[in-house]
């Protein structure tokens, strides 16, 4: 994998169960970038994590030459822009297509993840049933978007994974767990 130059140093502060960290890992791999994975204990947060993300104190955090970038979708966009000549593009080149991709990524963030979290942590059957119904409705809407955006190909972006695929892809393991539960 490329490092983006000898001076480029990438460290990812993350935790293996986080779908948000998985998003960033997928983006790093799509860009073909070398990085150091620094696993975090989310119960006993490291000084590095707390100093790197003093506002939210959560993962993921990308350290690029020691400078922190926080929030998974922001990190994915940052990687795509900072390493534009490396690996494949994640965001579309066309501004309209880029706006549409950002819209659907925000939809995933706002509709799917909160319902998944609620379904997995529900303490009553009523809450779990309502959250599951919300997940299914959101996925049905997303499926319609996929049919339109993919143009019959395997990814939202067409032939290769793009921004919406990365945004949703981090949740695959959670979706499988949710399905089992």
Task: Please write out the topology.
Elements: E1 10-14, H1 19-31, E2 36-39, H2 47-52, E3 61-64, E4 67-70, H3 72-82, H4 95-121, H5 125-149, H6 163-169, H7 172-180
Parallel strand pairs: 1-2
Antiparallel strand pairs: 1-3, 3-4
Helix pairs in contact: 1-3, 1-6, 4-5, 4-6
Question: Which structural traits does this protein have?
Answer:
181 residues, Glutaredoxin, Glutathione S-transferase Yfyf (Class Pi), Chain A, domain 2, four-stranded mixed beta sheet, Glutathione_S-Trfase, glutathione transferase activity, Omega/Tau-like
Termini separation (Å)? 37 Å
Radius of gyration: 17 Å
List the strand order in the largest sheet.
2-1-3-4
In round numbers, the mean pLDDT is 91
So, CATH architecture of the largest domain?
Up-down Bundle
Give the uncertain stretches in residue-range form. Answer: none
In CATH terms, what is the fold-level topology of the largest domain? Glutathione S-transferase Yfyf (Class Pi), Chain A, domain 2
Give the count of helical stretches.
Answer: 7
Q: Could you give a quick summary of the protein structure above?
A:
The protein is an alpha+beta fold and 181 residues long. The chain contains 7 helices and 4 strands; from the N terminus they run βαβαββααααα.
Description:
- The protein is an alpha+beta fold and 181 residues long.
- The chain folds into 2 domains: 10-83, Glutaredoxin, CATH 3.40.30.10; 95-179, Glutathione S-transferase Yfyf (Class Pi), Chain A, domain 2.
- The protein contains 7 helices and 4 strands, in the order βαβαββααααα.
- The chain has a 4-stranded mixed beta sheet with strand order 2-1-3-4, covered by helices on one side.
- β1, α1 and β2 (36-39) form a beta-alpha-beta unit.
- It is flat and about 50 Å long.
- The N and C termini lie far apart (37 Å).
- The mean pLDDT is 91.
- It comes from Eragrostis curvula.
- Belongs to the GST superfamily. Tau family.
């Amino acid at each position: 994998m490329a490092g983006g130059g000898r001076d480029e140093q990438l460290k990812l502060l993350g935790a293996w169960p986080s779908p948000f960290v998985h998003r960033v890992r997928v983006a790093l791999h799509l860009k073909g970038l070398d990085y150091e994975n620094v696993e975090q204990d989310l119960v006993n947060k490291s000084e590095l994590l707390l100093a790197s993300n003093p506002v939210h104190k959560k993962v993921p955090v990308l350290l690029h030459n020691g400078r922190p970038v926080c929030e998974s979708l922001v990190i994915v966009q940052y990687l795509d822009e900072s390493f534009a000549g490396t690996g494949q593009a994640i965001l579309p080149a066309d501004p309209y297509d880029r706006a549409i991709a950002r819209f659907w990524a925000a939809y995933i963030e706002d509709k799917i993840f909160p319902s998944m979290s609620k379904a997995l942590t529900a303490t009553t059957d009523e809450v779990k049933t309502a959250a599951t119904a919300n997940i299914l409705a959101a996925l049905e809407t997303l499926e319609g978007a996929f049919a339109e955006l993919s143009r019959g190909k395997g990814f939202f972006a067409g032939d290769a994974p793009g921004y919406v695929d990365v945004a949703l892809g981090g949740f695959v393991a959670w979706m499988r767990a949710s399905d089992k539960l």
